[in-house]
Each structure stands twice: as C-alpha cells, then as structure tokens.
Amino acid sequence: MKQTTIPSSLLQTAKNTYDALRRLPQVPAAYLHPWRRESIRRLAALKDAHTGQRAFIIGNGPSLKNTDLSKLRNEFTFGMNRIYLIFPELGFTTTYLCVVNNLVIEQTASDLAALDLPKFLAWRSRRHFAQLPLTNYHLPTFLYTSYTTPKFSKDVRGRVWEGATVTNVALQLAFHMGFQQVILIGVDHNYTAAGKPNTTVTSQGDDPNHFSPAYFGKGFRWQLPDLETSEMGYHMARQAYEAAGREVLDATVGGKLTIFPKVDYNSLFGK
Questions:
Q1: What's the pLDDT at 22?
Q2: Are the C-beta atoms of 167 and 80 separated by less than 8 Å?
Q3: How much is the average pLDDT of 124-129?
Q4: Half-sphere exposure of residue 198: CA atoms within 13 angstroms, side-chain side
Q5: Count of Cβ atoms closer than 10 Å to residue 230 Cβ
Q6: Does any domain span residue 144?
Q7: Residue 221 counted as domain residue
Q8: Is residue 184 part of a domain?
Q9: HSE of 49 in the Cβ direction (CA atoms, 13 Å)?
Q10: How many helices (H) and strands (E) does the chain have?
Q11: Full-model pTM
C-alpha cells in the first residue's frame, strides 16, 4: 500500500494553528487587563522613538569581564536578566532592562521591582508583582511573550516569540524602537553546562557561565540553554534588520555566535 506523506509546510501550519488555539484563553487579559493596557500605551510611545540611533544589547557572558563597559555610559543600552548585579561597579544603569524567563523573574521579582529604570517583563510573570508595593513608575512594561510559533515581531505591542533567549526579545524591542544599528556584547553563546535544553537545574556552586559567580549562584534554579532554537531566532532577527536597511553587529569578545557580522568592540568608539 502506498503511503501518503504530509508536506512539512502543512504540518507546520497545523502546529501553528494548534499553538494559537492553546494561547486563546490568554488573549483577553493579554490585551484588556489594565496593566497590559498601560504597557501597550507605553510601547506605542516607544515605537520608532530611536529611529536612526544605535544601541548595545548587553549579554551576561564571562566576556563582559574583558569588555570596557565604561564606554557605554552615554550609549543606549539594553540590559538583560541579572545585569543589575554589575550596576554598582559600573556607576550607571542600562537604559532599559529586559527579563522574560519564568525562573529568573520568580527568584528576583523584588530586586526587579526596586530597580529605577524602564523594564520589560513577560506578561505571565505578573503574579510575582501583584503583592509588591509598586508605584506606576516602577510598574514593569509587560510583553505578551510566548514559547511557540516562531516569528520576529517588528511591533511588540502584540505577541512576541521568546526564541529561547531574552536576547531575541531584546532584538525585537530594539527594532520596535527604531534603532538603526544594534550591537551585541557579552553574548558568548557558550556554556559549560551540558544536558537536555530547557531542563530546570539547581546551581550547586559558583556560576561559570556569566560575568559574576553569584549570577546563578548556589541554590538558584535555572534552565539549560537551547542554543539551536536561539540561533533560529537570531537568523530571523538578522533577516528582519537587513530587510529594513538596518544591521545587527556582534562585538562580543571571543564569542561563539556566528550569525551576525563581527566587529571589534573598541573600534566602535572615537578616541
């Protein structure tokens, strides 16, 4: 008997439809809840607000220890996750902060709420802030993020695919804001930990995978990286930026990521 093969495009369409149906119960609150309505208002104000400018997206890899971050004092910057651990040493904060991982937000919610800078967090994390004393200024801007149905969002007022790394979310935010050139640093794309991607593990000691041993220090729960999925997101980001006449450059010192054109970090600044 002849077997019938279902085209891969049809299978992907079916999967995307299934994913969309699973997300359907989340949609009303994701667009109508007062916190999300305020978030959408803020995101509308940020749309193309930085047209023609450049920004640095700061990863949290060990290479940051070999990067002169003082050069970023007067630059637009996106920090991610626990980058705030380095703020006292820097003497300044990043312009923006982006955090979407459930475990990171759950374990650092009080730290994040206290930070005095614009921050973008996953909408599903709102429960961790419901009981905290938030002023309207300290209220995060919530992004409606998802794990499924890959896409690159040029307007982040709607759904934003996480792409297995907060860096992909930051790239979409930067595009939404209109940045002409985005430069990655500290995105080492290299981990000593091995195991099934997205598996939750508990740190047993100092963290060798980030700029500080306390980043995911002893007792901190985190998820093993999914480099394959994150690279899918990076490819989509490069295509979107280039199609719009913009660019993403990688100035990470010794980084293993090969998706974006490489550039020497120090060459980006005048003497």
A1: 60
A2: yes
A3: 89
A4: 11
A5: 22
A6: yes
A7: yes
A8: yes
A9: 11
A10: 7, 11
A11: 0.91
Rounded Cα distance, 250 and 231, in Å: 14
Number of domains the chain is built from: 1
134-137's contacts with Cβ under 8 Å and 24+ in sequence apart are: 136/38
pLDDT, one tens digit per residue, over 231-242 is 999 999 999 999
Residue numbers of the domain that contains 82: 26-264
Specify the amino acid at residue 9: S
Which tokens belong to 151?
Answer: 């896409």
CB of 69 closer than 8 Å to CB of 195: no
DSSP for 131-180, please give it: TS---TTTSPEEE-EESSS----SSTTS-EE-TTSHHHHHHHHHHHTT-S
φ and ψ of 146, to 5 deg: -145, 160
Task: Print the SS3 string covering 229-248.
Answer: HHHHHHHHHHHHHHHCCCEE
Residue 188 contacts residue 65 (beta carbons within 8 Å) = no
Burial (CB < 10 A; 0-12, 13-18, 19+), residue 73, is exposed
CB-CB contact of 222 with 95 (8 Å): no
- Is the pLDDT at 3 greater than 70? The verdict is no
Least confident of 13-17, 112-116, 147-151, 176-180: 13-17
CA 150 to chain centre: 15
Both tokens assigned to 263 = 């550039």
Q: Is residue 1 part of a domain?
A: no
